[in-house]
Amino acid sequence: MAGPDFSADLATLDMSLSSIEAVIDPAGLKVEIAELQEAVSAPDLWDDTDNAQRVTSRLSALQSDVDRVEALRSRLDDLAVLVELGQEEGDAASMAEAETELTALQRSIEALEVRTLLAGEYDEREALVTIRSEAGGIDAADFAAMLLRMYLRWAERHRYPTEVYDTSYAEEAGIKSATFAVKAPFAYGTLSVEQGTHRLVRISPFDNQGRRQTSFAGVEVLPVTEATDHIDIPEGELRIDVFRSSGPGGQSVNTTDSAVRITHLPTGIVVSCQNEKSQLQNKAAALRVLQSRLLEKVRHDRETEMNALKGDGSNSWGSQMRSYVLHPYQMVKDLRTDFEVSSPDAVFDGDIDGFIDSGIRWRRTSELAAS
């Protein structure tokens, strides 16, 4: 019977899962879980709201890690039994079921293996993503809108909640910029490899002569701040302006000046939010975005200082990292990892896990090579 070499494949999966278990350390996590459960049961836990949220969030995340590893180990053990029985009895149906489960289990273990590579300072955080149109005029604005949809569809595929804070529409089509949050554990560590300049090559739908156009859009990914970050911003350092929210084509969305723009005077950082229902909500959302930008600035300044001490001023972030080619052929290629696919439509519909996984592996390899 033609099919996979189950003995070799099961041994490989067992080795991969054992390596993951060594990194995640379920036994050690269970000790911390027991301590956190005791803390959660304390009657005065919610006297300190910030600490209570930190404890309960940590407990939920650790329990999820343990459950995920144990579920994969159980599935692997069950698969080994299914293969053994199927081979002994010559049961073709059981072997077909085993082959299907083997493929699914390989994908699940590979996904968790990538997750173990997310060990950066803020990798566990939720993500704040900003997309901006760059060179290319109306095509660039349209491309930025395509990227916005791509990331929102990716989050939807994974059932990650998202919240769009601000969208600045271009005059003819597309967007000048958009900022949104992905509210899932490890969203920052996962999406941070998407940061950089994206390039689109296609026959422009906005060109009457049907010429090929190259356009660019930038993606910025920041970690969402938490209460423990202590990013204090004195009111005197802020200039707050209110304006009327607008939609595509400059049409007014609200009849009141509910949109908020905040300028951080010492750094010149400007953020805005117009998608919430009230001026108060927009101000709160804009402040969250500003805090994330300031947190990233602190991290970047610290990293720059460390690189200077090491005598290494190189930094590949922010450079062109992916090409989306729609003409004269169909291809999407990551210029750092060489990972590529020939189905741009699927990519623009949110099928980007292959790019993200290869990006995380590439980043980890680069970090090890630099250390």
Automatic annotation (TrEMBL):
An example of a Pfam family matching this protein is PCRF
The Swiss-Prot or TrEMBL record annotates one GO molecular function as: translation release factor activity, codon specific
Coiled-coil spans are 52-115
Residues where N5-methylglutamine is found: Q251
Q: Which domain of life is it from?
A: Bacteria
UniProt entry tagged with the keyword Cytoplasm: yes
Cell compartment(s), UniProt: Cytoplasm
Please provide the record's keywords in A-Z order.
Coiled coil, Cytoplasm, Methylation, Protein biosynthesis
Q: Tell me where it mainly resides.
A: cytoplasm
Summarize what the UniProt record says about post-translational modification.
Methylated by PrmC. Methylation increases the termination efficiency of RF2.
Prokaryotic-type class I peptide chain release factors domain location is 244-260
Q: Name one GO cellular component term.
A: cytoplasm
Which family does the UniProt entry place this protein in?
Belongs to the prokaryotic/mitochondrial release factor family.
Q: Which NCBIfam families match?
A: prfB (TIGR00020)
Q: What does this protein do?
A: Peptide chain release factor 2 directs the termination of translation in response to the peptide chain termination codons UGA and UAA.
Q: What is this protein called?
A: Peptide chain release factor 2
Q: Native species of this protein?
A: Friedmanniella luteola
Q: What taxonomic ancestry is recorded?
A: Bacteria, Bacillati, Actinomycetota, Actinomycetes, Propionibacteriales
Q: Which gene encodes it?
A: prfB
